[in-house]
Write a structure and sequence with these properties.
The structure is a single chain. The chain is an alpha+beta fold and 430 residues long. It has three domains: 2-155, Alpha-Beta Plaits (2-Layer Sandwich); 165-248, no CATH class; 267-344 and 354-398, no CATH class. It has 15 helices and 18 strands. The strands form four sheets. The chain has a six-stranded antiparallel β-sheet with strand order 2-3-1-4-5-6, sandwiched between helices. Strands 14, 15, 16, 17 and 18 form a five-stranded antiparallel β-sheet that branches. Strand 15 (327-333) and strand 16 form a beta hairpin. Helix 7 packs antiparallel against helix 8 (200-207) and helix 7 crosses helix 10. The chain is globular and about 75 Å long.
Length: 430
């Protein structure tokens, strides 16, 4: 969350407020990130915007967009103070921009390790005092950091150098050895345990086996998980391990955005993007492959039509949105080429049924989304390129909750039969 207060000439403030009001209106209408036209589009956008007098509150992805705020302040000849936090990523700080100079002070990993949560006291402990909430501690830590900066007492070490020291591999423990210690582990637990035992190189190699879908889901889980809510943060080593996992996700996102910028700057890719947009504007709808079958995407009607048999339609409204918002999920019968509806009393797993993941509408058809929300198509497609090929994610039914449902139903059926048998024996005994 960013809370920014602008100051300066009243007329300039009025112009800025009009701009921010328009951005907030578009954000509410489209649910998409916003950025002023005079700011380069590859910069971090504003989401969930609210405006009160000269103060704007909003969220950004990953980190505060102070450089964007600086461009806005320069455009309107204003100053600002941004109090920002993204506790899931260990971010808490204050940026002050005055007379063309930006001073940004934030907490770092060692700062967050200066206090701990005491389960017996049910409080956070910092410098011998207890606190019901972490926020008061953050403010004290930040205030101390400001005084250190003013007194030139902060060690002269770059953020990258600090991370290199913190995430230095000093162990060669393997995944097999960890499994012997802790038993079977989930993918994220493997990385956390490798990092906790100081084999950061192996943890990074394990992370590189994850696909985009899983990384996005893990990122959303970590954003929703409060930092001291679980055992993940009970020791310094566990805290460092979790910080390392978040660092890996941040690096992955930066690289993905960098690749997108490079692709958009490539003349060959630009020409290809222009051709795809021109073809789409002629009325040609996108296509997606689902388990080998070709479907036509019609976002306006919220449906996927089998291209060879247009009467066979998948209603997107019958799919559920994933937690990450990146996909629509459901069960799909590969033989019938239609959605499968669960029988809650099933005792046998259905044949030819898989778990289906369809990309969200921005990936399916950015042109249709832009039209739906009244957004400039060319601008929106530059930020959300048309995908030349679309393929739904297909996972085995074993990765759904159906096997557990079948086992529960079988157990209920067995318990019922045993109960009937017991009653019959009692009647015969009489």
């Amino acid at each position: 969350m960013n809370t920014v207060t602008f100051s300066g000439d009243d007329n300039n403030l009025k112009q800025l407020k009009n701009l921010l009001k328009e951005m907030a209106r578009k954000c509410r209408k489209t649910q998409l990130g916003q950025i002023p036209d005079f700011v380069a589009k590859e910069n971090t956008h504003f989401f969930d915007i609210s405006l009160t007098q000269n103060k704007i509150c909003y969220v950004t992805k990953w980190s505060p967009n102070n450089e964007v705020l600086k461009q806005i302040a320069d455009h309107f000849k204003l100053d600002f103070v941004n109090n920002y936090d993204e506790l899931a990523n260990g971010i808490f700080g204050e940026a002050i921009y005055k007379n063309g100079i930006l001073l940004d002070v934030s907490l770092d990993l060692p700062d967050f390790q200066l206090y701990h949560y005491d389960k017996d006291l049910e409080s956070y402990v910092f410098e011998g005092n207890t606190y019901e909430q972490e926020w008061d501690i953050f403010l004290k830590l930040l205030d101390a950091k400001k005084h250190q900066l003013a007194a030139n007492q902060i060690p002269d070490i770059s953020e990258e150098a600090a991370k290199a020291l913190l995430f230095k591999t000093i162990s060669q423990i393997t995944k097999v050895e960890l499994s012997a210690l802790y038993g079977d582990m989930m993918p994220a637990d493997i990385i956390l345990k490798l990092a906790e035992h100081k084999n950061f190189d192996a943890a990074r190699a394990e992370f590189q086996t994850w696909d985009e879908r899983f990384i996005i889901e893990m990122d959303n889980f970590l954003i929703q998980d409060y930092r001291h809510e679980s055992e993940l943060y009970t020791t310094r080593d566990k805290y460092i391990a979790m910080s390392f996992l978040k660092e890996l996700i941040n690096e992955w996102d930066f690289n993905r955005r960098d690749q997108l910028r490079n692709r958009l700057g490539d003349p060959v890719q630009q020409q290809k993007a222009t051709e795809l947009l021109a073809l789409r504007l002629t009325g040609k709808l996108p296509h997606i492959t689902i388990a080998g079958a070709d479907f036509t995407v019609d976002w306006r009607l919220r449906e996927l039509r089998e291209t060879a048999a247009p009467w066979n339609r998948i209603d997107i409204n019958n799919l559920r949105e994933s937690e990450s918002g990146e996909e629509y999920l459901g069960l799909y019968n590969t033989e019938e080429k239609r959605l499968y509806h669960v029988d809650n009393a099933m005792t046998v797993l259905p044949e030819n049924v898989v778990h289906l993941g369809v990309p969200n509408e921005i990936k399916l058809d950015p042109v249709a989304v832009a039209r739906e929300y009244g957004i400039d198509i060319n601008q929106f497609v530059r930020e959300n390129p048309i995908m030349e090929t679309l393929t739904a994610v297909i996972l085995p039914i074993s990765e759904t909750g159906l096997p557990e449902l079948v086992q529960e139903n079988l157990k209920k059926a067995t318990d019922t039969r045993e109960g009937l048998g017991f009653d019959q024996e009692r009647k015969i005994g009489r």
